[in-house]
Amino acid sequence: MHVELKNTTRKLCVIGDPVLHSKSPLIQNTMLSALGLDYIYLCQPVSAGRAAEWLSAAKVAGYAGFNATMPHKLDLVPLMDELDEDARLYQSVNTVCIKEGKVYGYNTDGRGFLQALLDAGVDPAGKRVLLLGAGGAAKAVALKLVQQGCVSLTVCNRTLERAEMLCQFNAAVMRAVGFDAATLRLEASRADLLVNCTSLGMGGVAGQFEDFHFLDALPHAAAVCDLIYHPAETELLAQARLRGHRTLNGLGMLIHQAVFALEHFTDTQLDGAAMRALVEGVL
Question: What interactions and quaternary structure are annotated (predicted)?
Answer without folding.
Answer: Homodimer.
